[in-house]
Amino acid sequence: MTTAASVRPYPQLISLAVHEFRTPASVVGGYLRMLQRDGGDPLTPQQRKMIEEAEKSCAKLVAMFGQLGEIGKLDSGALALARQPVDLFALVGDVAEHVHEAVDREVLLSVRGEAGGAVIDGDSTRLRTALEGIFRAILREKPGPCYVVADRRIANVDGGRSAVIVVAEDADVQTVYTSARGEFDAARGGLGLVLPLAVRVIEGHGGRLWSPAPANDDDSRARGSAVIAFPITESAH
User: Fold this and answer.
1) pLDDT tens digits, one per residue of 2-48
2) What angle do CA 110, 60, 32 make, to 5 degrees?
3) How far apart, in whole angstroms, are the C-alpha atoms of residue 89 and residue 111?
4) Among 110, 202, 107, which Cα is nearest to 152's?
5) Residue 51 and residue 59 in contact, taking contact as beta carbons nearer than 8 Å
6) How far is 133 from 191, CA to CA, in rounded Å?
7) Going by DSSP bridges, is the β-strand pair 107-113/146-157 parallel, antiparallel, or unpaired?
8) Which residues, at least 6 apart from 105, have a Cβ–Cβ distance to it below 8 Å?
9) How many CB atoms lie within 10 A of CB 33?
10) To bridge 225 with a disulfide, which of 55, 137, 156, 176 should be the other Cys (CB 3.0-4.6 Å)?
């Protein structure tokens, strides 16, 4: 029989799991780096390659455990987002300049629309990470050459003045913006826990994140685009 005393709170369980998983993964990663630098006998190219790949995998595990820890803290209210004036549109432009997720497939990201003037009270560091994760997720969906745009506009969303970012292929921006709202797929693989964390950061700022509702089971537009909206708290004009 389960008693109230024997049920551990969810945040406490997440915190314990993060610590218990991250510690051995960090140790393994440390030993692999030492082996790369200070190995006794020279490593063959094949051995070095295997060690490098193993070390990268350990680093990804450690990063995911950190993301899981942040998710647990945000869900429990133990982690407070910073509240400082952030020009969201300027931040979008800066983030987009450094995202080159699919440049090898000639999938290019650019920005257009309002360059500034959308000031919100927010955590610039976590917003930057959230936006980067969403941009990368969209670019990964594109199989071949195309232009993806992060379109910045001021609009009325849910009855309030909002800073809106529409991320979609150039020709689809307005269609994506006016389509029926569907849930943004944050459970896609290949990005660790970046997207579930991004959703929480956006919602923690009072924002909304959605994709166009899929027209059919194979609607690539739903997975390959997103709309992000934040209530504007200040104006730079």
Assistant:
1) 454 444 566 777 777 777 888 888 888 888 888 888 766 778 888 88
2) 130
3) 10
4) 110
5) no
6) 8
7) parallel
8) 142, 143, 144, 145
9) 15
10) 176
Phi, then psi, of 207 in degrees rounded to 5 = -90, 175
Alpha carbon distance 111, 124 (integer Å): 19
Give the CA angle between residues 11, 29, 133 to the nearest 5°: 55
Query: Which residue, chain included where needed, has tokens 């930057």?
Result: 128
DSSP state of 164: E
Lookup result for tokens 């509702």: 213
Angle between helices 194-204 and 45-76 (to 10 degrees): 30
Residue 3 to residues 6, 8, 15, 128: CA-CA distances in angstroms?
A: 5, 10, 22, 43
> Quick check: 121 and 83 in contact, CB under 8 A?
yes
**Model confidence over 81-118: pLDDT tens digits?**
999 999 999 999 999 999 988 889 999 999 999 888 88
User: Alpha-carbon torsion 211, 169, 235, 74, what sign?
Assistant: positive
Element (H, E) at 210: strand 208-212
CA distance 91 to 119: 10
Contact 164, 227 (CB under 8 A): yes
Contacts of 51 (CB under 8 A, 6+ apart): 32, 35, 36, 43
Residue 99 contacts residue 109 (beta carbons within 8 Å): yes
C-alpha dihedral, 113 to 119 to 120 to 123, nearest 10°: 90
The pTM is what?
A: 0.82
